[in-house]
Amino acid sequence: MRIDIVSIFPEYFAPLDLSLIGKARSSQVDLAVHDLRQWTFDVHRTVDDTPYGGGPGMVMKPEPWGLALDALNSPSAQIIVPSPAGKPFTQEMAASLVPADHLIFACGRYEGIDQRVIEHYGATEVSLGDYVLFGGEVAVLVMLEAIIRLIPGVLGNASSLDEESHANGLLESPVYTKPPSWRELDVPEILRSGDHGKIARWRRDQALLRTASLRPDLLEKVWPTLDKRDLALLAEAGFASPGADVAE
Ligand code: 6GU
Hints:
The protein is an alpha/beta fold. Helix content is 34%, strand content 17%. The structure holds 6-chloroguanine.
């Protein structure tokens, strides 16, 4: 996979040299960070200007972005623009980008990039969540970490991907390690029982209960896939069905 990042703060991407991402970079991922100002030609290396229509802040000018994206674009490239006004970034979106051949992340600052750039290149605006950051740099670090860890061979233990939070639409059950008793708190007995069937059931129950209490929105999405035993557990714990369309 080829990844290009364009930003006026290329130093933000130093963490990409670290850890598993750094390792993936040397094998599966060919990543380059570019300073947008290399595509400016005035003495002040200007990248922004005042917004048409008035209002606060500054908008990134289209010309440097046009030159940058013309230089980096390829027939297979998908251009992603981090923006609080974008489509929500999810585990599903991360997984959908893993087979991509070429990703270009265009990091805006200030009030954003002139919309004609997004339109001209058919770029996708993507948001991390319902809050506002200074710019797209940190958002790109987050997205890349989510995508790169899903590339086959990057994680040592690929089966951990199947059980983690969001892989099956539920939050993951809690985890424990030794010692069995710590500050008078004990590891749940069942996890030490060696009964793998019971352990799997317990983990699913914990995942269902945690999701029901913290993320009812997620539970609603998987509700039609729940079996009778799942539904009985949730009813017992006082979580009502989100609608009338309860699966048998
Ligand atoms: Cl992707 N960018 C910016 N600038 N702010 C955000 C965001 C992205 N996601 C949430 N807030």
